[in-house]
Design a protein that fits this description.
heterodimer; A: 251 residues; six-stranded mixed β-sheet; four-stranded antiparallel β-sheet; 7 helices; B: 304 residues; mainly alpha; two-stranded antiparallel ribbon; two-stranded antiparallel sheet; 71% helix; 7% strand; globular; membrane (chain A)
Chain lengths: 251, 304
């Protein structure tokens, strides 16, 4: 419902501003195969104008978000001389991957209201309702989530990484790391002027396992018993094979 | 060469895995151990999720124990009857172990449990083995032979006695069942075969002759870790075939090389080296628990 309202607002705003974003992606499918070691997605496009260039600084903000899911963040404390997990905070929904690239620092490219409305920055993209009741300092847990995922390249803030030429052409590249989960990666491009969103474009990048990876994963989840027995059969065959081969070499 | 593991959902270097498999294989061949207690922490270290590491390591142990038990069967150094009793205890233990593992995972304490188990068991076994082999070296230097001890203890007073011909024993089935169950619990929780605790228990507690101990423990380990693998695969979906195959290839080759090195060394020297290795792993894990970690927060997907 809220999304619909936003879209309606956007559409209402369009004719007055008369600036629209046209965009493309270097690929909309990412195939995870055995040799997958990350992927680089090029996102590019142009600003279409039917009126002369208006006043104010133009910015482009690009976000790529992986599928969301609940995450439990735990904190260790020293108990009886050793470090053990003591407190935990469950975060309702956090994207498994999130990158936000912009032409300027985000605070400059996007006003706080617009950030709140479109959930662009990382803290806004994480839905952490009801965490305050779980720990006195729940914000530290959310910070830890962002810090840990940023360290392994799952959360990326890329200010100034979108190149904008002549207020018309823009491009950026987002590096998807190797430890990617499957799903639809929602990709959004916002065109802002003076911090206000004047147009948005949305598409999705599909990340799927293919070939042997897909087969193994499906078998493990849909036929776990068969998969377990297959693992044992392979293990026993390898053990027997090694023993037989070694006897052959010796004898 | 990077390779993407389908279940662990991480990309790792295939040669690194082969090398790790090989290195642990050499050690396991040298010392006649499964190597699970070395491999599982190594897998944690390179970023494999702990649940996947424990489950996959169980599959790998099946392979290496099967390879080993074939050699012992040919030499007739497996007490199948004793192995079966140990196995029955082990299967029950593995079931209990998986239940404990899943319960503690929900409480977020599984890392602590696994590490504490490692520190306690490796510490005790390592220290005992170190002292024992020091004594043996001193004894062999002074030229005396080791005294043969097989005194009657409380073990012999228990009911339900059974004859184990291969081991030349007539004892109650309760101690082997208990030893088997304990090892089963450890196998499920720690992702190890449990040979490092079963072998000393068989020698010192059950009084089994040393020549049948290794073969019999391997026999039990195959069934118990196979059962643990199946339980992990069906309840947690955490067995990674790609990872298992790579570790296997390195492991079986390494084990054969290690066995050759082992033959060339004296038993006491081997035991003292092994005890030092066990104590080193124990010390590293103990430090992790005692020192303040660089990151006191940790993440896990899902609501628990």
């Amino acid at each position: 419902m809220r999304l619909l309202l936003v879209l309606l607002c956007l559409m209402a705003a369009l004719p007055a501003r008369a600036e629209r974003v046209v965009a493309g992606l270097s690929q909309t499918q990412v195939a995870i195969n055995t040799s997958f070691s990350g992927s680089e997605i090029l996102i590019f496009g142009a600003v279409r104008r039917e009126a002369p260039l208006p006043e104010g600084a133009l910015h482009v903000v690009v976000t790529v978000a992986g599928p969301s899911g609940p995450v439990t963040v735990r904190r260790k404390a020293r108990r009886f001389g050793i470090w053990v997990n003591t407190e935990a905070v469950v975060i309702d929904a956090a994207p498994s991957f999130y990158a936000v690239a912009s032409t300027a620092p985000l605070a400059q490219a996007l006003s706080q209201d617009e950030d709140m409305r479109h959930k662009v920055s990382i803290p806004r993209a994480i839905r952490a309702t009801g965490t305050a009741a779980q720990a006195a300092d729940s914000e530290n847990f959310i910070e830890a989530l962002v810090r840990i995922r940023s360290r392994v390249g799952l959360y990326q803030v890329l200010p100034g990484e979108v190149a904008l030429t002549e207020d018309t052409l823009f491009r950026t590249s987002i590096a998807l790391p190797a430890n990617l989960t499957e799903g639809d990666y929602r990709t959004r491009i916002f065109l802002t002027r003076e911090g206000e969103v004047i147009d948005a474009f949305e598409t999705a990048i599909t990340v799927r396992k293919v070939g042997l990876e897909r087969w193994t994963y499906m078998l493990a989840h849909e036929r776990p018993l068969v998969y377990g027995l297959l693992s044992l059969a392979i293990a026993i065959a390898a053990g027997w094979g090694a023993s037989a081969a070694f006897r052959l070499i010796r004898g | 060469m990077q390779i993407y593991l389908p279940i662990a959902e991480v990309s790792v270097n295939a040669f690194l895995l082969l090398g790790m498999g090989g290195l642990v294989g050499v050690l396991s061949g040298m010392f006649g151990i499964g190597g699970g207690f070395l491999m599982t922490p190594l897998l944690f270290f390179i970023g494999i999720p702990p649940a996947v590491a424990v489950a996959t390591e169980a599959a790998q142990i099946v392979a290496s124990s099967f390879s080993g038990v074939l050699a012992h069967l040919r030499r007739k150094t497996v007490d199948i009857r004793m192995g079966t009793v140990l196995m029955i205890g082990g299967l029950v233990g593995a079931g209990i172990g998986i239940a404990i593992f899943n319960m503690l995972r929900q409480m977020g304490q599984v890392d602590l449990l696994v590490k504490l188990c490692y520190v306690v068991f490796l510490g005790i076994i390592g220290a005992l083995m170190f002292m024992e082999s020091l004594r043996a070296i001193r004894r062999s230097r002074s030229g005396k032979t080791a005294p043969r001890r097989r005194q009657r203890t409380w073990i012999h007073a228990l009911p339900f006695k059974m004859k184990f011909r291969t081991s030349g024993l007539y004892i109650s089935v309760i101690p082997p069942l208990a030893v088997g169950a304990l090892v089963g619990i450890l196998a499920a929780i720690m992702g190890v075969g449990g040979g490092f605790i079963m072998v000393p228990a068989m020698i010192y507690l059950l009084g089994m002759p040393t020549k049948v101990v290794v073969g019999t423990s391997l026999f039990q380990i195959i069934f118990v870790t196979a059962f643990a693998t199946l339980l992990h695969a069906t309840t947690n979906f955490t067995v990674d075939l790609g990872l298992a195959v790579l570790l296997l290839i390195g492991g079986v080759i390494g084990a054969q090389v290690g066995a050759r090195i082992g033959v060339a060394m004296k038993a006491e020297q081997l035991r003292i080296l092994l005890s030092l290795l066990v104590l080193a792993v124990c010390g590293k894990l103990a430090l992790d628990l005692l020192l303040e970690p660089a990151e006191i927060y940790s993440l896990s997907a899902g609501k628990f």
